[in-house]
Amino acid sequence: MERLGELVAHVNRYYRSGTWDEFLRRINRSLHDSDIRKVEREFANYSISHQTEFFRDNLMTVFEEILPKIQYLYPLNILSLPCANGQEAYSLVMLALEKGLGQVSVTGMDISEEQLEMARKGEYLLTRDRSKKLEMEIQKGNIIPLDQYNRQHFRPNFAVSERLKEHVEFYENDILHSEIEGKYDVIFCLDLLMYFGEEGQNEALWNLTKNMRSGDLLVLDQPYPLVHGVRLIGADREEWELRRDYNQLVTGLEERLKLRLKKISSRFNVYEKTC
């Protein structure tokens, strides 16, 4: 985009209502056309959550759920989008290798070049509690301790092994602008769709699924638990509405005939592409 007005129009069209206003409050400064590249990078870092961690949420149990569908694929190609700082992508490699799927290749894509730079380095600042949960992977040599003095100075204190890095590549991608071109057996798309408005969700889902082959899998977030009968205000109310709207989206996903998706799990939001 060449002008600030184009970026504003793009955000207002595809993202949830109020996203641009909230972004302006966060950066708290005047914007000009001459700043467009810097503003685009800042918005990429702000627009979606980049909070992630190794083996996040139900990643391990979801992988177990889809294992019968993928265990005989050779090679196995997986997409993690958005990949944030790469911890999810590396987790998927570890899960695949643990199951003997040695020919696994994971591609991580994200809109933020800053996050992708962190992902390619594969170095992370982990709390003591998080590192304890990863003790098994540390013993296997998949995650390597760095100087623990670093943690006191907020520098990376753990790194993924070069062995894991051999199975992962990272690329910049804006799913609102680009179809997924590669052939992936499984696409993990977690913590993304909720940040878009209706038109953005439609565009992202089409770009994600258009080139999926029959039998390919799409993994989305679980429906979020919602509290009812409690008065919420401010950010809490916004979060509740965001989760409500996402739940409504995935509830009607199979009815979108154009996408040709069939839910195949009673426990998780796992969809299979149909002919």
Task: Note the run of SSEs as H and E.
Answer: HHHHEHEHEHHEHEHEEHEHEE
SS-based class:
alpha/beta
Widest beta sheet: strand line-up: 6-2-1-7-8-10-9
The average pLDDT value, as a whole number, equals 91
Q: Characterize the overall form.
A: globular
Broad CATH class of the largest domain: Alpha Beta
Work out the strand percent: 5-15%
Main sheet summary = 7 strands, mixed
Number of strands: 10
- Total helices: the number is 12
- Uncertain regions spanning at least 5 consecutive residues: none
Q: What share of residues is helical?
A: 40-55%
By CATH's scheme, which homologous superfamily of the largest domain applies? Vaccinia Virus protein VP39
What's the end-to-end separation, in Å? 37 Å
Radius of gyration: 19 Å
- CATH architectural category of the largest domain: 3-Layer(aba) Sandwich
Helix/strand layout:
Layout: H1 4-14, H2 19-27, H3 36-47, H4 59-70, E1 76-80, H5 87-98, E2 104-110, H6 113-121, E3 123-124, H7 128-133, H8 135-140, E4 143-145, H9 149-152, E5 158-160, H10 162-165, E6 168-172, E7 186-189, H11 198-209, E8 217-220, H12 234-251, E9 261-263, E10 270-273
Parallel strand pairs: 1-2, 1-7, 2-6, 7-8
Antiparallel strand pairs: 3-5, 4-5, 8-10, 9-10
